[in-house]
Amino acid sequence: MPELPEVETVRTGLAPVMEGQVIARATVNRPDLRWPFPERMAERLTGARIDRLRRRSKYILADLDRGETLLIHLGMSGRMTVSGDPLGRFVHDHPMPEKHDHVVFDMENGARVTFNDPRRFGAMDLLPTLEADSHPLLASIGPEPLGNAFNEGYFLAAVKPRRTPIKTALLDQKLVAGLGNIYVCEALFRAGIAPTRRADRISTPRLAALVPIIRDVLTEAIAAGGSSLKDYRQADGELGYFQHNFDVYGREGEPCRTPGCATAIRRVVQSGRSSFYCPQCQR
Question: Are strands 23-28 and 101-107 parallel, antiparallel or unpaired?
Fold first, then answer.
């Protein structure tokens, strides 16, 4: 499932053709995805201007001039791609419609944004903009890891008392927004912390060091266009390539990349998810 870097990359790709632009026509081709679409969604979106395109955790939020916000979640296989962009950044010709093109936005500037989701685990909702932060999907999410609220003081107070594995703590969206399996594995490797170590048994300096490490991993992944493992694509249809920089994720049995260490990367299952780590470099 796309994590923060992938969602941020999609948002950045959509902004030039959607932000500040009017939706000339919205087309909804089925009644639901993960849950039913809002009533009259196509009608409510058609003619609306997108004042701001932002991200909260793993959700894209389009604030409309009508006082509503369109919430978008890509799910496991959702893609938002652009065609016909007048700025010349994307493919100019609109492709033929595909079976799983569930929602299509034809913008007044000539661009078309298509939401394609073969597995239909994605979601869209319309909510009052002023109440967006209290939406059930957003209300309990923690601070953004690239924002000022995610700092050493906050992190230590939130994590140090926890008697759970550090990997489990970092995946808790109530603690920090948008972190997922891939980037937690990579951050813990850089910090030299085993994913199985209990959070309350990690020294304060080692925990504090995770804050800039998490920021660095996410920033590098965004710059690389995210990680393409299965279905993920950027808004221009291109693959992300941060997966080529993975130190541990998906590398079970391969040698550790730390100079002087050739220990095989190990995989363990934690709460139903695979954790990859070097048993020599991570303690």
Answer: antiparallel
Cα separation of 49 and 45, whole Å? 8
Q: Which residues are known catalytic residues?
A: 2-3, 58, 273
| pTM, rounded to two decimals | 0.89
The parts of the chain modelled with pLDDT lower than 70 are: 1, 85-93, 226-244
**Residue 155 confidence (pLDDT):** 98
d(CA 27, CA 128): 21
